Amino acid sequence: AQTVTQSQPEMSVQEAETVTLSCTYDTSESDYYLFWYKQPPSRQMILVIRQEAYKQQNATENRFSVNFQKAAKSFSLKISDSQLGDAAMYFCAYRRGGGGADGLTFGKGTHLIIQP
Amino acid sequence: NAGVTQTPKFQVLKTGQSMTLQCAQDMNHNSMYWYRQDPGMGLRLIYYSASEGTTDKGEVPNGYNVSRLNKREFSLRLESAAPSQTSVYFCASHDRNNSPLHFGNGTRLTVT
Questions:
Q1: How many Å apart are CA B27 and CA A22, to the nearest integer?
Q2: Best residue in A43, A91, A111 for a mutation probing chain B (most B CBs within 10 Å)
Q3: How far apart are CA A109 and CA A92, in angstroms?
Q4: Which B residues in the span 56-85 are in contact with A, Cβ-Cβ below 8 Å?
Q5: Which has the least CB within 10 A, A73, A110, B79, B111?
């Protein structure tokens, strides 16, 4: 079974600074997808960024980027120029490829605090 | 554009009571999911439905049943609620072409 580990239960960063959230995963598959979801206090689950395992280039979305290290099975999220609205729980998630429908496996989350 | 709609938003039950959580999506997605979220545990998969007419157990299915009523609707039933089922429940859906999951806004359930 696949597992996703987020080793930082909580992180704190000053507004406008850069922060990196860690995620490692364990799988024997070669085809898979990785995601970061944001959950603000509203409870809504918002997709931040996704990465296909077959792509070597790291995904970026505006201030959000990932460092995908396939051999190390590591998928960290970097948030640049942190803003107060970035404060939330962040979940790393894995899904095997091949068009399967057995859902995402989530890490336990990292609570990100933005200090003004 | 409603996306994934869950009802109710909040519910309080007494131990032993039953209830059904409703979920509907208007995106014509094939696959639908029920997750529960507990503090410090992330989201864990209860049941999923790969397509209309099929359902499968996830990581934590005990105490729950599901029905994929049609392509749009996927309900979760608690036959005899227990305090251990106090949680936030999320419904989600996606296409089978590896698109991201789309989530509903969750149901906070308290069992006393």
A1: 32
A2: A43
A3: 7
A4: 56, 58
A5: B79
